[in-house]
From TrEMBL:
Localization per Swiss-Prot or TrEMBL: Cell membrane
Keyword tags: Calcium, Cell membrane, Lipoprotein, Membrane, Metal-binding, Plant defense, Repeat
Official protein name in the record: Protein BONZAI 3
Coiled coil ranges: none
Domain C2 as annotated: residue spans: 32-167, 177-301
Alphabetized GO MF terms: calcium-dependent phospholipid binding; metal ion binding
Domain VWFA: 337-557
InterPro entries per record: C2_dom (IPR000008), C2_domain_sf (IPR035892), C2B_Copine (IPR037768), Copine (IPR045052), Copine_C (IPR010734), VWF_A (IPR002035), vWFA_dom_sf (IPR036465)
Lineage: Eukaryota, Viridiplantae, Streptophyta, Embryophyta, Tracheophyta
CDD domains, per database record: C2A_Copine, C2B_Copine, vWA_copine_like
Length: 590
C-alpha cells in the first residue's frame, strides 16, 4: 500500500474522491463534524485521471444545395475534432434520401473537457446513388459531392441556453454557401445521478499495540478483469474501533451502475503509507441501499475473503439525487467572467532586451506572459457573454505617479475593462512602454480589487462567477496580506489562477494553493471556506510535457465553481421554452 494516497492533503488523512471537503476539520475529532465534504479530488489529479462529461451530438441541416438533376440531394454529415492541426473523424450520420432539410438520427459522442479548446468541423456530402449500398465507414468522401462545411468550438455549443448552435455553411475556401447546419449537445441523464452515503463501523479489529486503530475506508470499482480501481476514500478517524465517517458523495461516473461490483476496504492508517488492512467486503450500490433499508450490518472479511471477521459496516445515510452539472449552470445563463493581472516588477528585466520575460519578439513568438494570457483567455472567452475583461498591472511606476500595485492596463482612470482577447494583448504591449518596472511583488491589492467586483456582482444576482489570472515572475513579499485577501475572497464567486514564469524559486507560492496542505488561515485565525487558488509554475509543466499550462490551471475550476454553487444551494435556471400551440389537438374526452 506504500504511497497509494501520496496525493492526499495532510499526509493522506483526508477524504478524497467522494466530494471531500478537505482539511477544515482536524482528523481524530471523534465522529467527524460538518456536512458533506467538497474538496478537490487530489487522488485523481495525482494519477492524471481527469473526469470529463460525455456528450451526445445531434445534427440537422436546412436549405442545402441541390446537387441532383432529377431528385434532391442525399445528404450525410461527417464530424471531426481538430487535434494539433489535424482532423480526426469522430462520426458519420446515416444518408437521408432526397432531402434538403435533413434531420439525422445517428449521433456522435464526444467527451467535453472544460480546460481545453475543442475545435469541431462539420462537413456535409451528397452521397451518389451508386454508393447507397456501401457501408458508411467505407464511403470514399472524395467521390461524393461536397455541400459545405462549418466550424465551431464545443464550448460555443454548450454555453447556449438550449445547447444548440446553428452555423452557416462555407466552401473549402471559406466563402459562404447556401444552407445551415444545427448542432445540439446533450448530456446523458446518468451523468447527473449521484448517491450520498454515510458509513460507520462497529467492532473493528485492533491493529495497534499501545493504542487503537486509526481506520479509514477505501471504495474501489472492480473492472471486468477484477482489477480494483479506487474511486474514493474517507478521512481517517484516529484511535477508534467504532468510527463514524463524514458523508461522501459518489457520482455515476465513479460507480458506473448500481449493479457493478465495488470493493470496500477498511485500513489502519500509517503515516509511512504502509496501511494495514483491517477487513474488506465486495458489494454494489444496490446492495448498499438494501443494507441501509434493513439497518443491518455487513461483515468484513480478511485478506481475499479467507475469514469472516466480527467487524461490521453500516450505512447511516443513503440518498440518491440528481446532481446538477457544470454544463447545467453554463447553459442556463451562468457566466465565467475573466480578469487578468500582470507583474511589471523590475525582476522581469528590461523589456527592450531579449533576455527579459517581457521582451516582445518581432517575429511574433509570444513571451511567457503572452502565452499565459492567450491560453487561458482563449478557453474562458466563450463563457463570458460581453467579452469585456478587467485587466490590471502591478509593481510598476505609472506615468506622472508613484509605484502602483493595481493599475488599469488600458491607462484609463475610471474603467479597467478591455474588449476581447485582442484588447488584453494590446493593452499589455502598450503598458510595457508607458510604465517603469519597479517593485516589490504584492498580490493583495489586485486580489482585493477582484473580490470587490465579485462582491458587488453578488448584490445584483448570482449567475456570475469570476476568474482572476495573475502572472508573476517572483515570490510575493506581502504573503500574509495575500493570505488575508484570499481567505476573505473564499466566500465569494471567485477563483484565482496564478502562473509563475521564469526561473525563480516558487516554493513559497505553493502555500497559497491548498492542494497539499491545510486551508489558508488569515492573520485573525479565520480559515478559508474553500480552496480558490490554483498555482502552476510554467517551467515545470512545460518540462513534463504531458499536459499544457492551461490544462493544469483550469482543471480545478469547474469543481470550484460547483462547490460554490452547491454549498449555497444555487440552482441552475429552469429552461425557458417559448409558448407555442400544441402540434396536435388534444384527444377527445371520454
Amino acid at each position: 500500500m506504500g504511497g497509494c494516497f501520496s496525493g492526499d492533503v495532510r499526509g493522506g488523512m483526508e477524504a478524497v474522491g467522494g466530494g471531500a471537503r478537505g482539511a477544515t476539520a482536524a482528523a481524530g475529532q471523534g465522529q467527524g463534524q460538518g456536512g458533506p465534504n467538497e474538496a478537490v479530488d487530489h487522488f485523481f489529479q495525482g494519477q492524471a485521471l481527469r473526469l470529463y462529461t460525455p456528450l451526445e451530438l445531434s445534427f440537422s441541416a436546412s436549405k442545402l444545395r441541390n446537387m441532383d438533376a432529377l431528385s434532391k440531394s442525399d445528404p450525410m454529415l461527417v464530424v471531426y475534432t481538430k487535434m494539433d492541426g489535424r482532423l480526426e473523424e469522430i462520426g458519420r450520420t446515416e444518408v437521408i434520401l432526397n432531402s434538403l432539410e435533413p434531420l439525422w438520427i445517428t449521433k456522435a459522442m464526444i467527451n467535453y473537457q472544460f480546460e481545453i479548446v475543442q475545435p469541431l468541423v462539420f462537413r456535409i456530402y451528397d452521397v451518389d446513388t451508386k454508393y447507397h449500398n456501401t457501408p458508411l465507414k467505407m464511403l470514399n468522401l472524395a467521390q461524393q459531392d461536397f455541400l459545405g462545411e462549418a466550424f465551431c468550438n464545443l464550448s460555443e455549443i454548450v454555453t447556449k441556453f438550449n445547447h444548440s448552435l446553428t452555423l452557416n455553411l462555407r466552401n473549402g475556401s471559406g466563402h459562404a454557401l447556401q444552407g445551415t447546419v444545427t448542432v445540439h449537445a446533450e448530456e446523458t441523464a446518468s451523468s447527473r445521478m449521484a448517491v450520498d452515503m454515510q458509513f460507520h463501523c462497529l467492532n473493528l479489529d485492533n491493529k495497534d499495540t499501545f493504542s487503537k486503530s486509526d481506520p479509514f475506508l477505501r471504495v474501489s470499482r472492480l473492472s471486468e478483469s477484477a482489477v480494483a480501481i479506487p474511486i474514493c476514500k474517507t478521512e481517517v478517524i484516529k484511535n477508534n474501533l467504532n468510527p463514524v465517517w463524514r458523508p461522501i458523495t459518489l457520482t455515476s461516473q465513479q460507480y458506473s451502475s448500481k449493479d457493478d461490483p465495488l470493493l470496500v476496504e477498511c485500513f489502519d492508517f500509517d503515516a509511512s503509507g504502509n496501511h494495514e488492512l483491517i477487513g474488506a467486503l465486495q458489494t454494489t450500490i444496490a446492495q448498499l441501499e438494501n443494507l441501509y433499508n434493513s439497518k443491518a450490518g455487513a461483515n468484513f472479511y480478511s485478506h481475499k475473503g479467507q475469514k469472516k471477521l466480527k467487524g461490521q459496516l453500516f450505512l447511516d445515510k443513503f440518498q440518491e439525487k440528481v446532481q446538477h452539472t457544470f454544463l447545467d449552470y453554463i447553459s442556463s445563463g451562468f457566466e465565467l467572467n475573466f480578469m487578468v493581472a500582470v507583474d511589471f516588477t523590475a525582476s522581469n528585466g528590461d523589456p527592450r532586451v531579449p533576455q527579459s520575460l517581457h521582451y516582445i519578439d518581432p517575429s511574433g513568438r509570444p513571451n511567457s506572459y503572452q502565452q499565459a494570457i492567450l491560453g487561458v483567455s482563449e478557453v474562458l472567452q466563450f463563457y463570458d457573454n460581453d467579452r469585456r475583461f478587467p485587466a490590471w498591472g502591478f509593481g510598476a511606476k505609472i506615468p506622472r505617479g508613484s509605484v502602483s500595485h493595481c493599475f488599469n492596463l488600458n491607462a484609463s482612470t475610471n474603467d479597467c475593462e478591455v474588449v476581447g482577447v485582442e484588447g488584453i494583448m494590446s493593452a499589455y504591449s502598450s503598458t510595457l512602454y508607458s510604465v517603469s518596472l519597479a517593485g516589490p511583488t504584492l498580490f493583495g491589492p489586485v486580489i482585493s480589487k477582484a473580490a470587490e467586483i465579485a462582491s458587488h456582482s453578488v448584490q445584483y444576482g448570482n449567475n456570475k462567477y469570476f476568474v482572476l489570472l495573475i502572472i508573476t515572475d517572483g515570490v510575493i513579499t506581502d504573503q500574509q496580506e495575500t493570505k488575508d485577501s484570499i481567505v476573505r475572497a473564499s466566500d465569494l464567486p471567485l477563483s484565482i489562477l496564478i502562473v509563475g514564469v521564469g526561473n525563480a524559486d516558487f516554493t513559497q507560492m505553493r502555500i497559497l494553493d491548498a492542494d497539499f496542505g491545510k486551508r489558508l488561515e488569515s492573520s485573525t485565525g479565520r480559515v478559508a471556506t474553500r480552496d480558490i487558488v490554483q498555482f502552476v509554475p510554467m517551467r515545470e509543466v512545460q518540462a513534463g510535457g504531458q499536459v499544457t499550462v492551461v490544462q493544469s490551471l483550469l482543471e480545478e475550476l469547474p469543481g470550484q465553481f460547483l462547490e460554490y454553487m452547491r454549498t449555497r444551494d444555487i440552482k441552475p435556471r429552469p429552461p425557458q421554452h417559448a409558448s407555442a400551440p400544441p402540434a396536435y389537438p388534444p384527444p377527445p374526452q371520454l
